[in-house]
Fold:
Amino acid sequence: MTADPVPATQANGSQVEHAIDCQSLTYSWVVGTDPVLIDVDLQLVKGDRCLLLGANGAGKSTLLRILAGKKLTQTRCCKILGQDVFMKPPGGVVYLGTEWSTNPVVRSDIVVSHFLDSVGGYRHKERRDRLLQILDVDLDWRMHQISDGERRRVQLCMGLMGDWDVLLLDEVTVDLDVLVRADLIEFLVSESETRGATIVYATHIFDGLKNFPTKICHMQVGSTPRGMVPWPPADVPSDKLDLFTLALGWLREDKVLRKDKEESKGRIRGPKTDTKDRVTFYQKYDYAH
Structure:
């Protein structure tokens, strides 16, 4: 069993209180198979806002689900608010992922007001009502009749209306329109600055995020080679900050690395013309033959 990680220290010798402390995390879907996460490090203090960047399949969702206590790991190397995320999960942690909207329950014929009350909305009236305004949610909507974007707004209202301390977001803003997304980002920044809440946000959409993160974590083929990258960088003028260009450069690098890694194992991405199914795939609807 891996020993508990040693707490980091500040320059004055005092210990840093990590809201999220994940060190050297390695994880495989099945024991004995190649790991999908390799020596991942993610350490954030209270009030940090971390943007989790990486290509599809880099391990972002797996990491977030582990931090949320939804997957058991073989080592105790992930802690939130000082507690093991699976063996002793802390309170105050909210995970919002994309799978929620496909749940048949949230697509049933239920009025939004009743739905929010059923999950305790009446206990958080002030925050609930503020989020209803930010997310532009109509209490008279019926869950089975609204769009995916509107259903996503209800999910965010439901998840954020409590006094959470750590928020794990996995691509949940992809369905939102630009205005609602901008207002939500402003709300999240305020939560971190006024309450010391910690946020990890995985996304592929970088518009309007220049002032959101305090840290950036690059996930590259299951690992975190750059560690925690401070944002904004001290040596870059504010008018030159460009998250999209930074992410694009990293993703191009990831593509080359992934290709080399897969070829070393005899795997080739893309169309294959020399396989036994070649004729079926390429000529099935080719009427010239």
Q: What stands out?
A: The two ends are 61 Å apart (CA to CA). The beta strands are 18-27, 37-45, 49-53, 78-80, 83-84, 93-96, 166-170, 198-202, 215-218, 228-230. The mean pLDDT is 87.
